[in-house]
């Protein structure tokens, strides 16, 4: 994935990115508009590109009196492709699960590192 352009205007971030996927030849263009809702959720929706649908939502919730943060993630995607949507969905889900597992592991390692530095 590579970022081509990001602009912010009137509280809306427009992001133009190119995405490569092993099941699809070449790059797919995705242009989204992101905004923060009054509820604090971060929502991004399709503006243009090689997708039929794109909707992403992050909801962050304080847990344990602020000691932790819970992140809920919702993603709805339909790509313009000759491949069956189910096949792309399975591959995308696998990729996202791997990404978030690695992110969680690195975040926990960083927190443990910071906590051990404070106790010394």
List the helices and strands and how they pair.
Blueprint: E1 2-9, E2 12-21, E3 24-36, E4 42-49, E5 51-63, E6 68-79, H1 85-118
Antiparallel strand pairs: 1-2, 2-3, 3-4, 4-5, 5-6
Short description:
Helices cover 28% and strands 53% of the residues. With 120 residues, it is of the alpha+beta class.
Give an overview in words.
By secondary structure, this protein is α+β, with helices and mostly antiparallel strands. It has a single domain, classed as Alpha-D-Glucose-1,6-Bisphosphate, Chain A, domain 4 (2-Layer Sandwich). Helices cover 28% and strands 53% of the residues. The chain contains 1 helix and 6 strands, in the order ββββββα. It has a 6-stranded antiparallel β-sheet. Strand 1 and strand 2 form a beta hairpin. The radius of gyration is 17 Å and the shape is globular. It starts with a strand and ends with a helix.
